[in-house]
Specification:
This protein has helices at 2-43, 66-70, 97-101, 146-163, 181-192, 238-251, 332-342, 361-372, 419-424; strands at 53-56, 77-80, 83-86, 107-111, 118-121, 134-136, 172-177, 197-200, 217-218, 223-225, 229-231, 236-237, 262-268, 271-276, 281-289, 296-297, 310-311, 324-328, 346-351, 377-380, 383-387, 391-395, 401-405, 408-411, 415-416, 429-432, 435-436. It is of the alpha/beta class. Strands 6, 7, 8, 13, 14 and 15 form a 6-stranded mixed β-sheet that branches. Strand 10 and strand 11 (229-231) form a beta hairpin. The protein is globular, with a radius of gyration of 26 Å. The N and C termini lie far apart (67 Å).
């Protein structure tokens, strides 16, 4: 009897040991795969974060893997030796899904690093700037992406409504500057509270989203759109998203003043005076800035850049064919534009860096495939130095200057933070190094 029990316990022990061994071996192999990805990311310059990114508290992390599964971009996070870690940190574009998915709150969202600072305006937890009555939501405040911007636009208006004094005298309770995701959401929320409000957009409804190529897929997630309801969107096209916004605004009888660029915001007694570029002026008790960080395209400042054949956005690539085109830039916008044009045109992509850094994994795969299939040419460590009528002059990595036949130049060199505009309005801007994004109310 004792012998039989001994055998049973021994078998059970060996069985459990085998399961534990198999499990630990599986974890080790998984860790090795992640470590290999990290090494590749280091070699490709993708391991260091560029802007908003997650930081993991290793003393709290329980290796649930929820953060890894929640990230829409994939291969941003992984598990090594039972702890979450960053892989392609520079590819993180700040969805914040990992932050919300972590069951033990071991993740914080941080913008900038100790070495790389990011300029941000001062914004309180209620989205109010250092100037009482001026609120900021969306990309300008450091948290971009459609879902985040929609949430912030609504929350900012809810907060300012709770503080409104209704002094009277001003034509509007609120002027919203910008009709991108944050501005649209803010407009719908203002309508919910029956505010006297006006929404001004320097371009067209949709803001930055409108400037995407027609075929571009907009990555987003389920969200609550004020005065409309729950919206479930995944891999939604630009046209579908714009159609949704038009419908939501139409249902609520909201009109956006398009092609109205705000030139300045100043105090006039106890109200704000909003001056437009074309001479119109409006007064309001509160202001919500829902503009992007890249409203003004960054220029190369080279001879010939004022030419009509130079553009800073691509709207309908399918309408362009048989052209010799140079695309400048190394971000997602530049790569997506080059890929969209490559099927019907001769495209050269010029990028001053040694390798593509902060781009989405899908774009990395597509551009690599296009290079291998000789669909377009990529010149790393190159710069345009002059744009002429029928050609461009490009300086290559080895110092040589070459002339390329050219019909069109598209420049995607990012944008410039509207620092002067904000400072003129009294909003303070600070370069933040490793700044932890707070949970806003």
């Amino acid at each position: 009897m004792l012998a039989e029990q001994t055998v049973i316990y021994a078998v059970a022990f060996l069985f459990c040991a085998a399961i534990i061994y198999a499990y630990l071996r599986k974890l080790k192999k998984a860790s090795q795969k992640v470590e290999a990805k990290i090494e590749v990311a280091r070699q490709e310059g993708l391991h260091e974060p560029v802007s908003l990114h997650p930081v993991i508290d290793l003393s709290t992390c329980i290796s649930s893997g929820a953060c890894v599964a929640a990230c829409p971009e994939k291969d941003i996070l992984g598990i090594v030796d039972g702890k979450a870690t960053l892989i392609n940190a520079s590819s993180c574009i700040g969805h914040g899904a990992c932050f919300h998915a972590c069951p033990v709150e071991a993740i914080t969202l941080v913008i900038g690093t100790e070495k790389r600072g990011v300029e941000l305006p001062h914004v309180s937890q209620s989205y109010e700037s250092n100037v009482p009555g001026i609120y900021i939501a969306g990309e300008l405040g450091g948290m971009g992406l459609i879902k985040n911007s929609v949430e912030q636009g609504a929350a900012a208006v809810e907060n300012l409504v709770s503080k409104m004094t209704h002094k009277g005298g001003a034509a509007y309770d609120l002027i919203i500057v910008g009709a991108g995701p944050a501005g649209i959401s803010a407009s719908l929320t203002a309508k919910k509270h029956n505010l006297k409000f006006l929404t001004l957009e320097q371009d067209t409804l949709g803001g930055t989203v409108y400037t995407f190529p027609r075929s571009k897929v907009v990555m987003t997630a389920p969200m609550d759109l004020p005065q409309y309801g729950k919206v479930k969107l995944f891999d939604t096209s630009k046209s579908e998203l714009l159609e949704l916004w038009h419908e939501a605004l139409s249902r609520n009888s909201i009109l956006i003043r398009e092609k109205t660029k705000v030139d300045s915001i100043t105090m006039d007694g106890d109200r704000f005076r909003v001056q437009t570029l074309y001479g119109e002026a409006f007064e309001a008790e509160n202001i919500l800035l829902a503009i992007g960080r890249r409203g003004t395209p960054r220029k190369l400042d080279i001879p010939g850049e004022e030419s009509e054949k130079v553009a800073y956005r691509l709207l309908e690539p399918e309408q362009i064919s048989g052209k010799a085109i140079v695309v400048v830039g190394g971000g997602d916008s530049a790569i997506e534009a080059a890929l969209a044009l490559a099927a019907q045109n001769k495209v050269t992509l010029s990028y001053r860096g040694e390798a593509f850094n902060r781009i989405k994994p899908k774009n990395r795969e597509k551009i690599q495939a296009a290079i291998e299939e000789d669909l377009l040419k990529v010149e790393f460590k190159s710069n345009l130095i002059r744009i002429e009528k029928h050609q461009v002059i490009m300086k290559l990595a080895d110092g040589r200057e070459i002339a390329l036949p050219n019909d069109q130049v598209y420049i995607f060199a990012g944008g410039e933070l509207p620092t002067q505009f904000l400072q003129k309005a009294g909003v303070r801007i600070t370069k933040r190094f490793g700044y932890t994004m707070k949970k806003h109310r």
